[in-house]
Amino acid sequence: MSRVVLITGGSRGIGLACAERFAALGDKVAVTYNSSPPPPQFFGVKCDVTDTAQVDAAFTAIEAHFGPVEILVSNAGVTKDTLLLRMSETDFAGVLDANLTGTFRVVKRATQGMLRARKGRIILMSSVVGLLGSAGQANYAASKAGLVGFARSLARELGSRSITVNVVAPGPVETDMTASLGQERLDQISASVPLARMATTDEIAGVVAFLAGPDAAYITGAVIPVDGGLGMGH
C-alpha cells in the first residue's frame, strides 16, 4: 500500500535521493524546502524548521493533500563551521536550533497522527561527526549527537504505539556541497575512510528506505552508520 512520506530538506542531496527512493517504491512523497523547490513530481512545501508556525502549516498542507504522515525523515539541517574561539553564540545556537530543535518541532507534529494511527516510522539524519567529532564543527557535532539521545528517548516513549525511531549517521557523501571542496580535499577525505571513497546519496537513501520498510519493524532506537567504516567503534 502507498504510504505518506515526509522528508524535510528534501529538494537536494541526501533528502532528494530519499524522496526519489520512496517515490520509486510507490509512496506518496512530500518534501519541505527552504530555498530551492524540489522537482515537480514531489509535493513541495516551503518550510523553515526553526519556525513552529511554519512547521504546523506545512503538516496541515500535507495532511490536506495526502493524509497523515506515516513516515518522517527529518533531514533538514545547516552548518556554520569555524573554530571554537571564533564561533559566536549565534553560530552555535543557530545550528542547534535548525538541526536539533528543528527536528524536535517536526517530530512532535508528526507524532500527533502517528499516535492516533498507532503506527509510524521516524528516521533522523545525524552524522558520523556527531559520534566521532570534528575540529571546527563543535556546533554541528553537538546538534547531531543530540539527535541520538532524542531518538532513543522517543523510541522508549513511543514504542508501545508501534512507532519506531531510528538514526542514520552518514559519513562523507558525494553532493553538490562536497563537490565544491575541490579534488585535493576530496582525495584527503576519501583517504581517511576505510573503504577509501565517499558514499553516494543513493546509498544513504537505501538505508533510510530499509528503516521505513517491513524488514525493520523490530528495529528502534538504533544508530545505523553509513560511513564506510570511518566512525567504527562509536
From TrEMBL:
Q: Which PROSITE patterns match?
A: ADH_SHORT
Q: Which SMART domains match?
A: PKS_KR
- Which residues does the UniProt record annotate as the domain Ketoreductase? 3-192
Pfam families reported for this sequence? adh_short_C2
UniProt xrefs under InterPro entries: KR_dom (IPR057326), NAD(P)-bd_dom_sf (IPR036291), Sc_DH/Rdtase_CS (IPR020904), SDR (IPR050259), SDR_fam (IPR002347)
- Single GO biological process annotation from the record: monocarboxylic acid metabolic process
Record's protein name? Unannotated protein
